[in-house]
Every structure is written in structure tokens, then in C-alpha cells.
Recover the amino acids of this structure.
């Protein structure tokens, strides 16, 4: 995580981190309530059982706290997309990205659903990089930037739709594959390449389920 | 609908109604649903606020009117799918018709999105999905599809396609690509996706041909 190596963080640092996590959890809990209250620093502090002043030691504003609470949501997409881009076979990389996304969505849906409640959508910026890379390699749906942007937007929006519609679903073994086919079709036209990518989703899902 | 049999007041009422629907649509796209009020719509249509309420019970009522044609289109297709003998063929025809409709005008799908309303109303969706479950449930189960999600996901992706591709001429590549995404929402088997995409493109070409030769068909 940090560059302190193996040395143990000090007690104060640990306490600070615990409080920080408690505040973030409180935001997610509140966002997931059926009757959603208007989020305020007071409400979040109460829920996390700390003083309001403590809230402001950690966050500048309630918006800041919401964003920080939803970092896992955005981070997973960003790091996975970077990993995928670095792979020798970008089609396989995309499959890995999708498998990780669906796996996380099924095993840990809370931050994703909370992020949606707060109005977040999966942003197409990084997926745009993938679309661009696909164009360079000649396997993409598009041959110009405008079309690449559309392909990236489809990818992000389909992921967002999956968060909305599939998180209440029992983990179904076939969902990763189906989701892969939907998201992948937004970026890849060649049916053979698409099946290759879906196979990568299948492999990565199997690996994740073992681990 | 014979124009001659229509009285002047009926004609005026119809024109005002259309103007109000247009004004609602324009405002919806310009400022979003929160900016659409009976006053702002009346202002835009250059009529009194009272006139607005002669035509609509509420602003929601006006928003529904904006989507009426699209709703009717989606409803009639859903009904056709429910009565079809061959599900694959019926769904493919639906998607093909959707793609052609998209080419002609994407505005209606942008409107649905701007209004935050589904292309089909919630009650209708629930009804149609329940009927689809009766009719096609076992097949969906075989394919690992949950009926409650396949329908809504497909309709939402249709709105998304409206945002991105509405009103633009579509190449065969784009049509194939969108058909693949849409069919992937209700089947998980690669072979049947391919088959549905193939059927969709065949319908899509046929629909395009029909539009270009109305005179030859004697219409």
C-alpha cells in the first residue's frame, strides 16, 4: 500500500486509518438505506460514532467523504484497465478486466450500489484507452476517434446498467460470460475475437473463484 | 382523421396539443426534467398556463404524451414477440426494426432518457416481462437468463444506442455490432447470438429496401 515497507504503522496512524475506514463505511451504509436521508457530516459522524469535528479532520466536505468512500469502485476499474492495456494480448486483457469487474460486483456489491445511489456512472475515460488501442491494432469496432468514443461510452454505460440490474441477483455462474459478451461487443466486431475474449472472461472467472 | 370533417375548434385544439407536446420535448432536451413545468411549457408554446391544464392533468402527463409514439412502438413489438411461434425470429425482427428507427430519428430515445422514463412504462414492462416468463421462461432458464433483467437491460441499452447513434446513417458493421450487444442481453450461447445477429441483419436489409422503393410497391 504505502512505501513504508514492512515497518508497522504507528498506533496513531492505525487509529487514524480505522476512523477513516469507519467514516467511509458509514457513508456507504447511509447510501444503501432504503429511505435515504440527506447526507450530512453530522449524520455520518453519528453513524461512525465519532465527533463531528473528527469528520472534518478526515474530509473537507460531505461531497469529499462520498467520493473517498467510493474509491474502491473507481479504483478497481482504473487499475484493471491499466493492467489490461499492458497485457500482450489486449483482447485477453479486456476479458480479464470484465471478469474482475463482475466478480467484484457479485462478491462485494455494496460499494457499487452505493456509488450508483450517489449518482456515479462508470466513466469511459480509461475504457477509451482500450478502444484506442483496439483501433491501433485493427480489431476495434471503429476506425476513427468519434467512433472510439462511442465504443468507450457503450462500454462504460453497459457496465453501469449491469450494476443497476444485476447486483440483486444471486451469483449466477453464467453471468460473467454473458456480461463479457455484452461489454465486449461494444468494442470488438470480429465474432472470433469476441469469443476469444469471452473465453478469457471464463478462465479469469474460474481463477478468481478458486482464489 | 379526415381534415375536412374536423371543425375549426377541433383543429385548433389539436394544433395546440401538438405545440405543447413539442414544447415539452424541447425543454426536456434543453434543461432536463426539472426545468419542465406547466409554466415553462406554456411559455414556450406561447399559451396561457390554464391552456396547458386543458390538455394535461399534470406535467408527468405531458411527459408521457411526449413518449406516446415510442411507447406504442415498443408495446406492439412486445406483443408480437409474445404471440410469435419463433422467438428468435421475432426478437431479431424487433431489433432490426429498432435499428432502422434509430437511423431515422434518435430523438425519441434521447427524450426517454432525458425524462428518466423507460421506453416502456414500469407497469407495462412488468406485465410484458411476466407474460414473457410464462411464454419463454423455460427457454430463458436453459440459457441462464433471468427474465426480470433481460428485458430491462435490453430496453436500457436501446436508450443508450439512441443517445449515441440516433439519427445517423448506420453501416452494416455498426448494425451488426449493436445487434450483438442487444442479443447478448437475452442469450448466452455464442451460436444462438450469431444466429440472431444473422437474422437481424437480414431483417435490417429488408426493412431498408422497403423504405427505398415505396413507389415501386405502389404506395
Amino acid at each position: 500500500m504505502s512505501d513504508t515497507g514492512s515497518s508497522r504503522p504507528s498506533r496513531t496512524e492505525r487509529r487514524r486509518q480505522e476512523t477513516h475506514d469507519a467514516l467511509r463505511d458509514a457513508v456507504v451504509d447511509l447510501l444503501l438505506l432504503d429511505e435515504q436521508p440527506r447526507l450530512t457530516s453530522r449524520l455520518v459522524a453519528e453513524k461512525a460514532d465519532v465527533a463531528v469535528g473528527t469528520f472534518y479532520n478526515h474530509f473537507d466536505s460531505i461531497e469529499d467523504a462520498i467520493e473517498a468512500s467510493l474509491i474502491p469502485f473507481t479504483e478497481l476499474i482504473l487499475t484493471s484497465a491499466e493492467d489490461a492495456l499492458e497485457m500482450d494480448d489486449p483482447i485477453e486483457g479486456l476479458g480479464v478486466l470484465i471478469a474482475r469487474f463482475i466478480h467484484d460486483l457479485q462478491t462485494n456489491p455494496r460499494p457499487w450500489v452505493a456509488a450508483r445511489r450517489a449518482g456515479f456512472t462508470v466513466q469511459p475515460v480509461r475504457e477509451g484507452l482500450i478502444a484506442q488501442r483496439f483501433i491501433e491494432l485493427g480489431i476495434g469496432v471503429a476506425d476513427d476517434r468519434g467512433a472510439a468514443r462511442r465504443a468507450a461510452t457503450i462500454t462504460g454505460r453497459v457496465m453501469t446498467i449491469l450494476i443497476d440490474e444485476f447486483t440483486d441477483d444471486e451469483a449466477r455462474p453464467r453471468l460473467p460470460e454473458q456480461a463479457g459478451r455484452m461489454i465486449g461487443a461494444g468494442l470488438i466486431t470480429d465474432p472470433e475475437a469476441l469469443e476469444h475474449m469471452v473465453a478469457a472472461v471464463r478462465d479469469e472467472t474460474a481463477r478468481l473463484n478458486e482464489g | 382523421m379526415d381534415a375536412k370533417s374536423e371543425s375549426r375548434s377541433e383543429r385548433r385544439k389539436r394544433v395546440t396539443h401538438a405545440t405543447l407536446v413539442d414544447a415539452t420535448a424541447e425543454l426536456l432536451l434543453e434543461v432536463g426534467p426539472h426545468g419542465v413545468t406547466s409554466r415553462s411549457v406554456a411559455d414556450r408554446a406561447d399559451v396561457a398556463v390554464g391552456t396547458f391544464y386543458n390538455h394535461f392533468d399534470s406535467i408527468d402527463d405531458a411527459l408521457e404524451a411526449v413518449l406516446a409514439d415510442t411507447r406504442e412502438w415498443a408495446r406492439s413489438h412486445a406483443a408480437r414477440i409474445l404471440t410469435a411461434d419463433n422467438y428468435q425470429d421475432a426478437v431479431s425482427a424487433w431489433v432490426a426494426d429498432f435499428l432502422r428507427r434509430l437511423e431515422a430519428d434518435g430523438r425519441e430515445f434521447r427524450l426517454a432518457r432525458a425524462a428518466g422514463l423507460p421506453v416502456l412504462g414500469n407497469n407495462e414492462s412488468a406485465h410484458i416481462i411476466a407474460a414473457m416468463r410464462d411464454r419463454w421462461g423455460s427457454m430463458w432458464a436453459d440459457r441462464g437468463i433471468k427474465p426480470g433483467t433481460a428485458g430491462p437491460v435490453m430496453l436500457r441499452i436501446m436508450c443508450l444506442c439512441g443517445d449515441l447513434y440516433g439519427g445517423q446513417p448506420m453501416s452494416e458493421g455498426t448494425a451488426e455490432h449493436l445487434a450483438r450487444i442487444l442479443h447478448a442481453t437475452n442469450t448466452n450461447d455464442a451460436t444462438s447470438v450469431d444466429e440472431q445477429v444473422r437474422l437481424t441483419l437480414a431483417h435490417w436489409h429488408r426493412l431498408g429496401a422497403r423504405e427505398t422503393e415505396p413507389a415501386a410497391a405502389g404506395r
